[in-house]
């Protein structure tokens, strides 16, 4: 019986070891599945970002109203969505951001965003310039539209012609670069600061303060765009491997930043716009085709004879030029009393002008708010990203 008891004890011990061994194998197997699942989720996350960027820019490139106020707002919506998705990718992998070479790539991206902040400030000034043009258009519309119930007289035409002359001078000044200098006094009002009382001392609000306080007379939008595009090369295979694929979304976001800022500068009046800034996107990236298509469409618009000397490619700017020119020609050739045919022609032109004024009025304020939002988000994301880099570098 003692032998039997011994043998029984040995059997139970073997059974226990077998169960432990099985459990260990199961744990290792589950860990393998978990690693595989994490890797798969990681890959899907990065692939999803590429697809989202591709789809968004495909919609923008195929739109019929490219370079209109509504399209520019859609462009900024796309940029903010890309920013948010990119931030989520970095946040999920923030512990890995301090490793080389991803730390360098991310730092270079945030350096480029500083240039984008300057461009946001310049775009804001361009929006203000369009707003000034709009005020003169409203004077014309009011002067010639106020006599809707009666006959148009010389007084209304004199007031309209003065407003049109002032508008023409402002727009010519902008084309020749003088308008930019005229706004320099306003350019210290960046998105991240405000005046406090009559002493105009800046009020700083944490990380939201501007990284670019003013724009000098020698400032150039073209040089800022060139700085964003400098050394913007697709990641090499060893960089992709070393960063576990993170180098790809960083390059993608760099390219998105570049083309969005370029499109804004193309559309809105800016100092030294320089639309011929080189832009390229390797065809192996799915988003390259729609982005290059969009770039080509905007360049074709810039080459049109009637747009070559325009201060901005925004559709509404072209309408301002066309509409004001038409009414100026009508006003210069009127003889009083007006014939019924000529009066109908003038009223038709004023009606088109009134519709344009309404479209600009409805579009400019929301656009300025969006540019402001892009500015603040860019500052916030940059500060947060650099904090992640600093935190993990310090821990290591």
UniProtKB/TrEMBL annotation:
| Keyword field | Membrane, Transmembrane, Transmembrane helix
- Keyword Nucleotidyltransferase on this protein? no
Q: What is its main location?
A: membrane
The signal peptide, as residue positions, is: none
The protein's topology relative to the membrane is: Single-pass membrane protein
Indicate where this protein resides in the cell: Membrane
Membrane-crossing residues? Answer: none
**GO CC terms, sorted:** membrane
Family the entry assigns: Belongs to the ROH1 family.
Q: Could you tell me which PANTHER family the record lists for this protein?
A: BPS1-LIKE PROTEIN (PTHR31509)
This protein is called what?
Answer: Protein BYPASS-related
């Amino acid at each position: 019986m003692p032998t039997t008891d011994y043998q029984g004890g040995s059997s139970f011990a073997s059974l226990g070891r077998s169960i432990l061994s099985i459990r260990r194998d199961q744990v290792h197997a589950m860990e393998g599945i978990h690693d595989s699942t994490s890797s798969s989720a990681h890959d899907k996350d990065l692939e999803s970002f590429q697809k989202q960027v591709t789809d968004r820019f495909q919609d923008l490139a195929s739109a019929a109203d490219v370079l209109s106020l509504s399209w520019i707002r859609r462009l900024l919506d796309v940029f903010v969505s890309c920013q948010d998705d990119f931030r989520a990718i970095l946040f999920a992998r923030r512990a890995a951001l301090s490793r080389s070479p991803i730390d360098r790539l991310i730092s270079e991206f945030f350096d480029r965003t500083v240039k984008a902040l300057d461009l946001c400030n310049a775009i804001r000034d361009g929006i203000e310039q369009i707003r000034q043009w709009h005020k003169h258009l409203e004077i014309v519309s009011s002067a010639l539209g106020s006599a809707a119930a009666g006959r148009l007289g010389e007084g209304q035409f004199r007031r309209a012609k003065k407003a049109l002359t002032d508008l023409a001078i402002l727009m010519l000044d902008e084309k020749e670069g003088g308008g930019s200098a005229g706004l320099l006094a306003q350019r210290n009002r960046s998105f991240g600061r405000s005046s406090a009382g009559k002493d105009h001392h800046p009020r700083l609000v944490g990380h939201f303060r501007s990284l670019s306080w003013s724009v000098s007379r020698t400032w150039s939008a073209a040089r800022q765009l060139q700085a964003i595009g400098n050394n913007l090369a697709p990641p090499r295979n060893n960089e992709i491997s070393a960063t576990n694929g993170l180098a790809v979304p960083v390059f993608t976001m760099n390219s998105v930043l570049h083309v969005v800022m370029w499109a804004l500068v193309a559309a809105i009046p800016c100092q030294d716009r320089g639309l011929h800034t080189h832009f390229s996107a390797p065809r192996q990236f799915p988003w390259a085709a729609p982005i290059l298509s969009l770039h080509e469409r905007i360049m074709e618009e810039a080459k049109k004879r009637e747009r070559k000397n325009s201060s901005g490619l925004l559709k509404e700017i072209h309408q301002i030029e066309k509409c004001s020119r038409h009414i100026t020609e009508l006003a210069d050739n009127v003889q009083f009393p007006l014939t019924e045919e000529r009066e109908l022609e003038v009223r038709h032109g004023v009606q088109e002008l009134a519709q344009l004024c309404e479209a600009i009025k409805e579009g400019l304020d929301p656009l300025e708010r969006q540019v402001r939002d892009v500015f603040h988000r860019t500052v916030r994301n940059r500060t947060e990203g650099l904090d992640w880099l600093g935190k993990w570098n310090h821990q290591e």
